[in-house]
Structure prediction request, 624 residues.
Amino acid sequence: MSAGFVIIVTGILVAVPCAVLGTLLVLRQMAMVGDAISHAVLPGIVLAFFLSGSLGPLAALVGAGAFGLLTAVFIEALRSTGRVKEDSSIGIVFTALFALGAFLISRYAGNVHLDLEHVLYGEIAFAPLNTLVVGGVDLGPRTFWTLGIVTVLALGLVLLLYKELKVSTFDPGLAVALGLAPGVVHYLLMGAVSVTVVGAFDAVGAILVVAFLIAPPATAYLLTERLSYMMVLAVAVGVVSAVAGYYLAYAANVSIAGAMAVAAGALFATAVLASPTHGVLANAARRRRNRRSFARGLLLAGLSRSRRSTEHDLAHHLGWDGERVSTVLRAARSGGFVLQTGNGEVVLTRKGQEAVENLSRALR
Amino acid sequence: MKPVLKPGRERAAVVAPDATPLEVRGLTAAYREKPVLWDVSFHVPEGQLVGIIGPNGAGKTTLLKVVMGLMQPAAGRVRVFGQSFQKARRYVGYVPQRGSVDWDFPTDALDVVQMGLYGKLGWFRRPGKKERRVAEECLEKVGMGAFAHRQISQLSGGQQQRVFLARALAQDARLYLMDEPFAGVDYTTERAIVGLLRELKAQGRTVVAVHHDLGTAAEYFDRIVILNRHLIAEGPVGRALTRENLEAAYGGSGAFIGDR
Prediction:
């Protein structure tokens, strides 16, 4: 197995569960909860390390999963006091827990493999070096195992509870009325996010995992109007980011995880600009089209009131400057809405009259 | 499938055919120690359209929340078809306030209506062809058949409200709880909703709706519950919706509206 292959697959195994769960987080307007959990699991990992004596993947997953859930519970508890708004409560809980983790590391574990830089940025480049050896048998890269389990868990949760997750995200009140326990669903989702974040930890670190949780779903949100498509698209964006990021890092000789996050950001920026439905360009084009057709409508309506007039009359009648009249008139003429006679008189064509009728009908 | 994760079926009670759809007894509800509803008692007979009216902050929405078990009462109790809400929920349909959900959610009208069937499906099972057909029929009933695949943010306010009603129809309930179904809808939708309420009544179903417009309350409902933290009055429209009762609920401001 080539090192590049291991790194790319590791990146994909981070991107897929993050995209699927991130879609739900984004729709629940909980994107920052993902951020919070990604940091707050740190003390869980440290404690798991103390208790199990090694950084076994399972111990870390369990420890971090517990602290991820704890984070969700704390945020909710603090918010429900009514004294702290949700964003402040997120900020307080995750910084406190992250600080606790940092404290534990620097106080008791200064010399072990758990260094803070690794925690924050991860090091996906080491993925090929870390193999899982059980009973002397080399089972391949460790990330394949940890992230493989995480991916199966995340996909399993979403496939099994798709409709429960959907209804509790769209309308929690209805979910309660139907007996579909949105509270249970919420904590299952939080648990899955925690486990995913921990799995992704080694590879991309606590900060960059947020890019994988949020950017691909946010990109997909701009491109589709259906939840299932949004998840699939988010996965596609995540996978493309992982692959493109690897080659970008290779070409530019930069951090691989960083390059993957940059690729995800670039795809998002592209969607913001170029999405056919919600993109900046499409919106601008739509606005320009609407502006033009409205101006044409005004001109045609003015013309139908006065029957025959010259460009000059129209300018006077509409209160527009001459330049605007001639621009709009030129467009109306090439669209076949008006004719201009030899002596400069402007006359509505049949198509023009129909357009005026449609316009006044729309007003009724 | 673990039964413990599967409410709606095993734990659901089969209710008696003549059970009272909704009975509220000595209900006091409070946010922290601040009472919002104080010692409220009334019952809703089967097959009636019941309007709950009262000024802002009178506890109307709180009442619905307690009925649905979204909020625990401080004292008193609520019976739905003689059972707790949890046991009777498959007989109850719910129409929330339109503003309570995010209409930019990536889904279409048909899918929202299908959500009304999730309770019957229970945990894990996915909606299939049958659910889809039921949802399409319900959309037809509210005059929204042509909008089945319209993204929900592209519907007008009235159309969104009708989608919610179609979803409640899909729930095929005996008791419907509606939180301000007439809020902010256009005339066409208002008439469509009224028609639908009457059809539900004709089928012997019961509707309890929070309502804001005193001017139409007498026309739309058979019975009225007037709340202002306390129960001011309840009963058939002719008896409950009197000038004195409205003055008691709204203070002086209600007098000119409720003059009848």
Observations:
- Chain A has two domains: 3-215, 281-363.
- Chain A has 16 helices and five strands.
- The first helix of chain A runs from residue 3 to 27.
